[in-house]
Design brief:
Layout lengths: L8 H29 L16 E7 L3 H12 L6 E8 L5 H9 L5 E6 L10 H10 L4 E6 L2 E3 L4 H6 L8 E3 L9 H23 L11 E4 H6 L16 H6 L5 E3 L7 E3 L5 H11 L8 H26 L5 H24 L9 H21 L7
Parallel strand pairs: 1-2, 1-4, 2-3, 6-8
Antiparallel strand pairs: 4-7, 5-9, 6-7
Helix pairs in contact: 1-6, 1-10, 1-11, 6-12, 10-11, 10-12
Length: 379
């Protein structure tokens, strides 16, 4: 059976948009994301004498249950010299009492109490700044109260990536136990964000990290006046600050499984939506070049699927939209599959198009909601 190639103008336009969108996607997948997908991890095991002292910094607000579960995994790390700075941000759930009692017999614990609600900015930046100033060591390592290191080698693995000239190490923080539809969406979102920021860092263009697993020098923070330039924005301690100070020479990534920190996913759609809205508030403050690159990728995703639907509505032979989709699906299988392996994820990447289409609609909707409603405060 012959395929009719006698197209009208609208069909040619739809084919052109689909082709261009696919080419843009291919440029991102093979020119950028492949850096993470085919990354060869070179693990190093420095001697204890070569390991500098470290300050782990955690900001906690009403997180006594999380601290009870996770703080022991941090305090008992296999590392020769470190302290754990916990900033208690005006908690009223027993966090202060728990930390005070723990500090009686745990010399590594350095507590900073904010007993009055002095955090007028409603984010982590104020408590983190106090924690950084209280830290005794030059090397800082950040995580959250609800995070647990994958192993007792977490500090060792993250710090081993510091070389001459290194000032920042970006880590990875996946979710554990994420099940069901909500878990699937959260895992895909975390994986896609990781592919973006880790690939960009490997390409020498870092633009963000995750506060769940991030390290940088105290002097870097102090010399650049910390978060002052964006103190008025509740979020941004792990992306706006990294954009401010990171470059291709001073930033490295840690991708060993032992360097990961795990956290539990949100349990309900409403709590996840609040979290997503909070994370999306910083996007409009990104540097123009970064904003353009991320927007171009997102727009190419939308225009690709939209033009596929348009082709079907124009009653073109199904072989054309099917062929376009198959090409995209194959590259997605390869890159997401290899990236999942690099990040030690057991993600059902063959279902990626379903999640991709969901976020093409979901993320712009949340950005629009943020633009017409009050900002989400950090609690």
């Amino acid at each position: 059976m012959w395929i009719d190639l006698n197209f009208n103008l609208l069909t040619y336009i739809a084919l052109g948009i689909t082709s261009f969108s696919l080419l843009v996607q291919m440029a991102y997948y093979w020119g950028l994301f492949s850096r993470l997908a085919f990354y060869k991890n070179m693990e190093s095991s420095p001697n204890d004498e070569q390991l500098p002292p470290v300050s782990v910094v955690i900001s906690a607000r009403n997180a006594v249950l999380d601290l009870e579960k996770n703080l022991p995994y941090i305090l008992y790390q296999d590392y020769p010299q470190f302290e754990v700075v916990v900033v208690n941000d005006s908690s009223d759930d027993g966090t202060e009492e728990f930390l005070t009692e723990l500090a009686r017999y745990e010399p590594k614990l350095n507590i900073v109490h904010i007993r009055q609600n002095l955090n007028f900015f409603h984010g982590k930046k104020f408590p983190l700044s106090l924690g950084i100033k209280s830290a005794k060591n030059e090397l800082l390592l950040f995580t959250d109260a609800d995070c647990r290191p994958k192993s007792d080698k977490w500090i060792r693995c993250m710090i081993s990536h510091y070389q001459e000239g290194t000032e920042i190490v970006l880590g990875y923080g996946p979710y554990t136990g994420a099940k069901g539809l909500l878990g699937f969406l959260q895992r895909f979102d975390t994986l896609q964000i990781a592919i973006l920021y880790l690939s960009k860092a490997l390409a020498g263009r870092p633009y963000m990290g995750v506060g769940r697993n991030l390290s940088y020098l105290k002097s870097l923070f102090m010399d650049n006046k910390g978060f002052i330039s964006h103190y008025n924005i509740p979020s941004g301690d792990d992306d706006l600050f990294i954009q401010q100070v990171a470059n291709k020479r001073n930033c490295r990534v840690a991708l060993e499984k032992a360097s990961f920190t795990f956290s539990e996913p949100e349990k309900t759609f409403s709590s996840w939506i609040r979290q997503k809205r909070r994370h999306l508030t910083t996007g409009k403050y990104y540097k123009p070049g970064i904003k353009f690159q991320l927007s171009l990728f997102a727009f190419s995703q939308f225009s690709f699927y939209a033009s596929l639907v348009w082709l079907l509505l124009l009653h073109i032979h199904p072989v054309f939209p099917a062929g376009f989709f198959l090409l995209h699906y194959i590259q997605q299988l390869v890159i997401f599959g290899k990236s999942s392996k690099t990040l030690h994820e057991k993600f059902p990447f063959y279902l990626s198009p379903i999640a991709e289409i969901f976020f093409i609609i979901f993320n712009p909707l949340l950005i629009f909601i943020n633009s017409v409603t009050k900002p989400i405060k950090w609690m």
